[in-house]
Design brief:
Structural class: alpha+beta
Low-confidence stretches: none
Number of helices: 8
Mean pLDDT: 96
Order of helices and strands: EHEHEEHHHHHH
Protein name: Glutathione S-transferase
Radius of gyration: 16 Å
Shape: globular
Strand order of the largest sheet: 2-1-3-4
């Protein structure tokens, strides 16, 4: 594993899981280093030397250190798995659109709704659930007749959107009304190398 990239992660973090998921699916040699958030390891040295923001995930690739899950996806795809990041200008722009969605409405919607139920975060659950359903409606419409979000093959856009969408029920967000989204999730789960994040018995899953 000497040539493997290192992924500093946390088992229940959707942001970290999307990086692990991509490394698995793309066949990128990697080593997962779990950071004990409960003990505050992410707020102490030496982790803060890697990411002063004190957040997972963090990627180490030799002397290169990158934080932010979407930035890591772009780096890994460009360097190790270029098929997952199209170079066509239109398709690459669409990938960026979904990375922004993952950092925006997905984060403020299903991610935050899950933070409330799983981690007792002091966030507005009603707002998060409403935001989640709003973005799920958009995704469901976009996915009509599509297997994946961009083009005809999987990309890092699918990886960025997958985890918090799949785990939305843990935050009391039902996926029952979104058949295209459910089909999309199944398509990602059918990819070689797929590895799920552990399901938490919370929200609708309790």
């Amino acid at each position: 594993m000497s040539n493997a990239v290192k992924i500093h992660s946390f088992p229940l973090s959707g942001h970290a899981q999307r990086v692990e998921l991509f490394a698995n699916i793309a066949g990128i040699a990697h080593q997962v280093i779990n950071v004990d958030l409960a003990k505050g390891e992410h707020k102490k040295a030496p982790f803060l030397a890697l990411n002063p923001a004190g957040q997972v995930p963090v990627l180490e690739d030799g002397d290169t250190v990158i934080s932010d899950s979407n930035a890591i996806l772009v780096y890994l795809a460009r360097k190790y798995a270029p098929n997952y990041l199209p170079t066509d200008a239109v398709l690459e722009a669409l990938v960026q659109k979904f990375l922004s969605l993952a950092a925006g409405e997905i984060a403020f919607g299903p991610c935050n709704a899950r933070l409330v139920t799983v981690f007792n975060a002091t966030l507005d659950a009603d707002f998060a659930i409403a935001t989640a359903h709003n973005v799920l409606k958009k995704l469901d419409a976009h996915l009509e007749g599509r297997a994946f979000l961009v083009g005809d093959s999987p990309s890092i856009a699918d990886i960025a959107i997958y985890t918090y969408t799949a785990h939305a029920p843990e935050g009391n967000v039902s996926l029952a009304e979104y058949p295209n989204v459910r089909r999309f999730l199944a398509n990602v789960e059918a990819l070689d190398g797929f590895k799920p994040m552990a399901t938490t018995k919370a929200g609708l899953v309790a």
